[in-house]
TrEMBL record:
Protein name: histidine kinase
Signal peptide positions (record): none
Catalytic activity, reaction form: ATP + protein L-histidine = ADP + protein N-phospho-L-histidine
Lineage: Bacteria, Bacillati, Bacillota, Clostridia, Peptostreptococcales
GO molecular function, one term: phosphorelay sensor kinase activity
Keyword Transmembrane among UniProt keywords: yes
SMART domains in UniProt: HATPase_c, HisKA, PAS, PBPb
Gene source species: Tepidibacter formicigenes DSM 15518
Domain PAS: 308-378
E.C. code: 2.7.13.3
């Protein structure tokens, strides 16, 4: 019984062991299956990266991912046939959260610390990162201890902040939210030292941060390796990434780094010797070619110089003015023209003599003073007009110019003389002619003035006598020859007025020439002046079977003028219009206001003026018709006097005329005002003055 129990126990133990073995085998099989699933290589990984961590990872202006680490992971993906997708975040905290909560597979690169190890597993180092202090160039410091009071700009989440707080507790830190705020503070001048990450040979940080263009690296505070970081427990993924890094060749890794570093050339002794020999050979060949080229240029230059020298010699020989070169107050060179101007027989008579020996005695001191001034001040002297002496003792007028030159390697004075004797003679002749002309004009002016006054006195007596007889003969019964006298009295009166008009015009022309023609400028209503004188002659014009039309676009325009002279101008123009307009014709007088200018137009429908004679119409003693065949009376002085009066007002007069259709005289007078102490507006001119003025101006009009 005992034996059977023992056998049963043994069988149970064997069965139990078999069951355990089966369970173990099954569990092992299951584990292997699971292991195969877990270690299956991923085809795509998501990398958490920082969007503003230059030059390691950042977004460019077009939103593309750039940086050393970006290029590294792209190369890793190509080697391992894995698609790499970058998830860009603006801060370290956000990138760490992506790993912590499984939203990203791997961190782009970071330091190891105990806090991060609680939720991350770290891989092997794969690239070094340096952190340095960059300081403004104009700050005179040697290390980080010199700027502890200046302050260092650093971002809140940067590892460097904690490093500086622990290792440099006395250093002032200026903490900003992100790197953009740091750079804005730099731009505004609030920060003059910053803490920035950089890589290996990369020193020119302003390439990525233009705000730091005036900054230089003061000190590297640490160099630490960057590691791969994955979510805690993702050992297989971490191993896969580490193995993938090991698969990357040295050339692939160096290719990534070299893109972001300065190029460094490593030279061996043999290479140096080879480069030196090559460079030396190139330099020697270049020098030989340059020497040959220069020799050719020099030879060509010498040839051209010789040709130029011959040309200059020929030019000096043909130069019409005298050329002297003086050294040590002696003439050392002279050209043919100088020998000819001074009347010398040969060069020997001038060479080695003083230049002032050929100057007239009264002018020697001035010429010598000019020579001394040119020597001392090294300037070009102003042109002088002096007198020279020829070999026969004849004095000639010469023009002298001097300046300093170099002659045969030594300082010298170049003197050029020009014979101006003929010019002086012509000037004397012109002066003589001018004096004679002025004398003639003065005599002519005096003659006209004297004869005008001599004629005016008896004429006034004659005119007064006629007026007296008219007064006495008002009652025809008291005079026997009343009818006879009444017939010829108007003719005598008109001719007296005509002669008086001629005399007045001659006197005024004489005064204008002599500059004694006086103008009495006062403030007048020019519209009223023109209208009154026009209305005064309206009946007379109508009696000639002519129409007169006066029109104005303004009722009042106060200007400074001589009203008496203006009336005289208008009467003269009306007199011409009446004389040359046939019965049934019309005369138009218009006034236009052009703000700063008053325009007066006198227009008729008369015979007009031929075009070829319009240019001379305002000249003195000029008339449209020939002297012996003219149809109307006149002296030819009136329009010349009109023009002078208008110009005395600062105005202008123009003529528009077409032969056979009529003429228009246009007067433009500035609308100036005279500042007067008395009344602004002057009263009208007396009626009696106007009547006599009309009689005089219209005296050459016959029925």
């Amino acid at each position: 019984m005992k034996g059977s129990n023992v056998c049963m126990k043994k069988e149970i133990k064997i069965i139990f062991k078999k069951c355990i073995l089966i369970v173990i085998i099954a569990m092992s099989f299951t584990f292997n299956i699971n292991s195969q699933v877990i270690v299956e290589n991923p085809k795509k990984i998501k990398v958490a990266a920082i969007s503003d961590w230059k030059p390691f990872s950042y977004l460019d202006l077009e939103g593309n991912s750039k940086g050393i680490l970006i290029d590294f992971w792209k190369a890793w993906g190509r080697v391992n046939n894995v698609e790499v997708k970058f998830i860009m975040e603006t801060s370290w905290t956000k990138t760490l959260e992506l790993i912590k909560y499984g939203k990203a597979d791997v961190h782009i690169g970071l330091f190891y610390n105990d806090d991060r190890s609680e939720y991350m597993d770290f891989g092997s180092p794969f690239i070094d990162l340096m952190t340095g202090i960059y300081v403004k160039e104009d700050i005179n410091i040697f290390n980080i201890n010199d700027i502890k009071d200046l302050g260092i700009g650093v971002t809140k989440e940067n590892y460097a902040r904690h490093y500086l707080e622990n290792n440099y507790p006395d250093t002032k830190l200026l903490v900003y939210q992100d790197i953009k705020e740091v750079m804005e503070a730099v731009r505004k001048g609030k920060v003059k030292a910053v803490c920035i990450d950089y890589h290996n040979n990369f020193r020119k940080i302003s390439f990525y941060y233009p705000e730091l263009k005036d900054f230089e690296l003061l000190q590297t505070i640490y160099t630490q390796p960057l590691r791969v970081g994955v979510k805690k427990g993702e050992k297989e993924l971490l191993n896969f990434i580490n193995d993938g890094i090991k698969k990357m060749s040295v050339n692939e890794i160096d290719g990534v780094k070299s893109k972001w570093e300065y190029i460094t050339i490593y030279l061996t002794k043999d290479k140096v010797q080879k480069y030196i020999l090559t460079a030396s050979a190139i330099i020697i060949i270049f020098l030989i070619m340059n020497i040959l080229f220069l020799r050719h240029r020099i030879a060509l230059g010498i040839k051209r110089l010789a040709e130029s020298e011959e040309s200059y010699k020929e030019l000096v020989k043909l130069f019409p003015h005298g050329i002297f070169v003086q050294q040590n107050d002696r003439v050392v060179f002279v050209n043919e023209a100088a020998v000819r101007i001074l009347g010398q027989e040969s060069y020997e008579n001038i060479i080695d003599k003083r230049f002032i020996e050929f100057i007239q005695e009264d002018y020697k001191e001035t010429v010598q003073s000019t020579i001394d001034k040119v020597k001392k001040s090294k300037i070009t002297a102003p042109t002088l007009e002096q007198k020279g002496i020829k070999s026969n003792g004849e004095v000639i007028d010469i023009e002298i110019t001097m300046n300093e030159i170099t002659y045969k390697g030594k300082p010298a004075i170049l003197t050029i003389i020009r014979d101006i004797s003929r010019r002086k003679e012509r000037e004397k002749e012109k002066q003589k002619i001018l004096r004679e002309k002025l004398k003639y004009e003065r005599l002519k002016t005096e003659f006209f003035s004297n004869i005008s006054h001599e004629l005016r006195t008896p004429l006034n007596i004659l005119l007064g006598t006629i007026q007296l007889i008219n007064k006495v003969s008002e009652n025809k019964n008291t005079h026997v020859h009343y009818d006879y006298y009444n017939k010829y009295s108007p003719i005598m009166t008109q001719n007296c007025y005509r002669l008086l008009r001629l005399i007045n015009n001659l006197i005024d022309i004489t005064k204008i020439d002599a500059g004694f023609f006086k103008m009495n400028f006062r403030n007048y209503n020019i519209v009223q002046v023109i209208e009154d004188i026009t209305m005064s002659v309206a009946e007379y014009i109508k009696s000639k079977n002519l129409n007169i039309i006066f029109d104005t676009d303004i009722e009042e325009k106060i200007i400074s003028c001589d009203a008496d002279k203006i009336e005289r101008v208008v009467l003269n123009l009306l007199s011409n219009a009446i004389k040359f307009t046939k019965a049934g014709g019309s005369i138009f007088i218009n006034i236009y206001d052009k703000n700063d200018i008053v325009c007066i137009s006198v227009k008729d429908t008369g015979i007009g003026i031929p075009k070829e004679e319009q240019e001379t119409i305002f000249e003195r003693f000029r008339q449209v018709h020939p002297l012996l065949n003219r149809e109307k009376e006149g002296s030819g002085i009136g329009l010349s006097l009109v023009k002078s009066i208008v110009e005395s007002h600062g105005g202008n007069i123009y003529l528009n005329s077409e032969y056979g259709k009529g003429s228009e005289f246009i007067i433009e007078i500035p609308a100036n005002l005279k500042v007067e102490e008395e009344s602004v507006l002057v009263d009208k001119i007396s009626t009696e003055d106007k009547v006599e003025k009309i009689n005089i101006e219209f005296s050459d009009i016959y029925s």
